[in-house]
What does this fold into?
Amino acid sequence: MLIRIPPAHHIPEREVTPEALYERRGLFLNRRSFMAAGAAAALAALLPGSRSHAATNPLGSAAKSQWSTDEKLTDMDAVTGYNNFYEFGLDKDDPAKNAQNFRARPWTVEVTGLAARPQVFDVDDLIRRFPLEERIYRLRCVEGWSMVIPWIGFPLAALLREVEPLGAARYVAFETLHDPRQMPGQRRAVLKWPYREGLRLDEAMHDLTLLSVGLYGKLLPNQNGAPIRLVVPWKYGFKSIKSVVRITLTDKEPATSWNLAAPHEYGFYANVNPEVDHPRWSQARERRIGEFFRRPTLMFNGYGDAVAQLYAGMDLGKHF
It folds into this structure.
């Protein structure tokens, strides 16, 4: 199974996201834009059969997280236009083109398996229930490119505590929606659908592990994994499964899609490690989207101080 590797010049330097759209201190920078947004929300609330934006998208209340990096953000156009999401196509620009009519509402996530209180959660109820944080995380992909993205979400641990994992639970398995009518990439046997991923329970309960419902202050775009996706910043990007519909607590290491497709290339752990090369290319350096020169890859993607203890005593060359 081949992953297409873009040439270094594939993404040109793009214009920085306008301040009118986004900046780190809040979604709106001036009173005029705030009032306009409020008026639009009020008008929507008056329309028959509609729900106000404020009621369904309270992302503006997201607190700034202690986990955030202070590195320069990747341009929003690149984040939303340059994606790996094979359910919508193999080329990096396919998801943005092919996911426009994807229906991300209504949406539920079933959490089941070795849990005392298995439940089905509505994604908008989760957005209202859990305090949201903005976490500016690095994302490092196995092909050698990286981004810095302002995710909005809540720790996966908060959701797992709701279902009360049993003592026998050791792993957490995830599944993406399987709907070839909406996801044209699933009509081809590129992978064994639905897309599957997994974490050890201690990885899943780590505070860095995020369930994201938005980015750049807005609900997740379809091509970025709407309406809810995993973000595990110290692992390669394919671990951060998108459009999640099922989470299962289990006592066995779950099968994962890329490990099933090419086990000698994609291990279960997929920790970012510059010392362990992919069989077909080096992982020692990366290209930050929007930059010309490559930079050294950081162990655990720069989050080693927070997560290295999870792998104490393990051979990271063997358990890749």
Q: What stands out?
A: Confidence is low (pLDDT under 50) at residues 1-56. The longest helix spans residues 31-46. The chain is about 20% helix and 20% strand. Residues 63-311 form a domain with the Sulfite Oxidase; Chain A, domain 2 fold (CATH 3.90.420.10).
